[in-house]
Amino acid sequence: MKLCIGLCDENPLHLRMIAQEIRRLGRIREIETEIYTWTCGSQLLQEAESSGIQLYLLEIKMPDMSGIEVAKQLNQLQPSAQIIFISDSLEPVCDIYETEHLYFILKSQLARRLPDALDRALMKLGKAQKGVSFMLHSRRQVTPIPLHSIVCIEKELRKIIITTTHERYEMYAKLQDALASLPPNDFVQCHRSYIVAFRHIEQICGNEILLSNGQRLPIGRTFMQPLKEALMQRQFSS
């Protein structure tokens, strides 16, 4: 699965920071990302149409041409492309409603907001992993949670808490029933109270797991060896 992304920001440092975060999220979602960058909107418009870009992240305030003006033209040139606005401030935010866009992110909230924005873009573009969801049952409603977004699942009394890349959910269920409904190649139990997604494991630190969201989970003594074997098997099969 491949996603072509265009970034436009007059600040090269911000471009590198955003590109780095997108690549990190792409690895977690097992999506290959091809990223193009521009420091001015007019140059983007000259080159973008031939690049096959599907998702744009545009800084609103740029000297030669605002991100809003760029978005208006992209809406005409590439109506199926998704647009996310980014900015240092809320000052020009009202004007974005003159365009077809998906999301607005303050740069100070990039790490927190970008995962949700990217997931929405993938859904719009039809690139989310279809038919691969965990079904959340609550109050007579059933909500599908994309498996790639699940970081870990925790048992708390008679509930389980599902931590995703951008939200937490609760439901009444047994941890073992949750484990049985998850693909064994993607999830593993690391403790009597925790299930973890392989793709979100960053590091094993002694008897703890460091996750992609910075959370640390304990590894139960009886789960240590099976966990190591499962990680080794994934490494050799990838």
From TrEMBL:
Domain Response regulatory: 4-122
Superkingdom of the organism of origin: Bacteria
InterPro entries: CheY-like_superfamily, LytR-like, LytTR_DNA-bd_dom, Sig_transdc_resp-reg_receiver
Keyword Cytoplasm: yes
UniProt keyword list: Activator, Cytoplasm, Two-component regulatory system
Alphabetized SUPFAM superfamilies for the sequence: CheY-like (SSF52172)
Molecular function terms from GO: DNA binding; phosphorelay response regulator activity
Physiological role: Required for high-level post-exponential phase expression of a series of secreted proteins.
Protein name from the UniProt record: Response regulator
Species name: Holdemania massiliensis
